[in-house]
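Sequence in, structure out.
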Amino acid sequence: MADLESALAYARDHQKDFLEEFISFLRIPSVSTLPDHKDDMYRAADWIIKQLESIGFESVAVMPTGGHPVVYGEWMKAGEDAPTILFYGHYDVQPPDPLELWLSEPFEPQLRGDDLFARGASDMKGQIVAHLKAVESLLRTSSLPINMKYLIEGEEEIGSPNLGDFITENENLLSCDLCLNGDSNILAPDKPAITFALRGLAYFEIRLQGAAGDLHSGTFGGAVDNPAIVLCKLIAGMRDETGRVNLLGFYDDVRPLSERERSEMVSMPDEWWMEQSGASVLFGEQGFTTTERATARPTLDVNGMISGFTGKGSKTVLPAQAMAKISMRLVPDQKPERIKDSLEAYLEANAPPTVTWELEDMASSPPAIVERDSDAVHAASRALEAVWGVKPVFQRQGGTVPVVGLVQELLGVDSLMLGFGLPDDNLHAPNEKLHLPNFWRGIETYIRFTCEFGS
């Protein structure tokens, strides 16, 4: 049986050791999108393997995928009648660029006040280590009241392109009663939260071709169409001046927000959104609060554009090609494949005959929403309240965690989003950080949740 108080005491007594191990993990530059870091990806996977083996997990392995490997391990000694939890995390991180904006080296962690700065500190190595150390604290002092499996992937930051196939091929191995996902945040250091809904993603690259090659704009300007201008016009027509998307059928499957949910939603004031973004004026779909627009409504955004000459100085070129990367954040019950159909229909109807176009599906993930009235959610609520001293709130998050929808679809189980990052942790940006008091509270919350859920 698990001994809650002994595990909590162990965690508090070993904070120095836990922090040193956390820092050693952060020093590994496990950037999944850059081929130069392939060896670092295996180093990060091996770091997790050693952690699991040291606390007695079995069937621990680095498992291949079509890209970066998955780390798996299990502890199944609680018995057949005990529930089984699958903990999901990802060991890959975003590139640290632009480096000149970091106040310290991104892969040399630095503690400033109560915050530990490093790439991956919050997203999401800190959450992985917090759970590992919670499990260690229980196993070093007594036992686990549940069976535990780990699924730690290395491709979340590039859209988890191989995770669906991996889950399908290992369905029996990954069978569980609940997926515990640490890739989430709370509202503030004194405001614990449980995430119950995530937006999905549909990400595309649009390529236009005009003339066979770049032309002199003095010779051919006015006689040959410009793909860059055509692309800008196409993109401008994809949404109106308030941000509402103009693609036919885009909103057909959107599940409306209920009045109850809107009344219960914790809305951050507009001043907070402006402070966090650095924007002097906010923008978005009319009839919704800023928080609703950023977490519970679908969007369409341009993530990048390239055409023609972009170097210093001038070059009078009429470009032959233009490219844009377009992403849509989706909400329940939108489906990425139907969104692609809408975008293709828009391009067919609006692209002029002066250009040809291609549409490539770069990444997709379904939105997810989970049951709020469940044993797991109640156990997490009690654990959070015991550690923070206040009841947690329920929140939607605007980001995408592909595994949540995949686990629902392929394993038939819900996910409990229970992480401890903060909205101002600078995820994907320079000077990423983790608030260390949250790290310690996160470990204690995971310990209490494990005991609560196991009982």
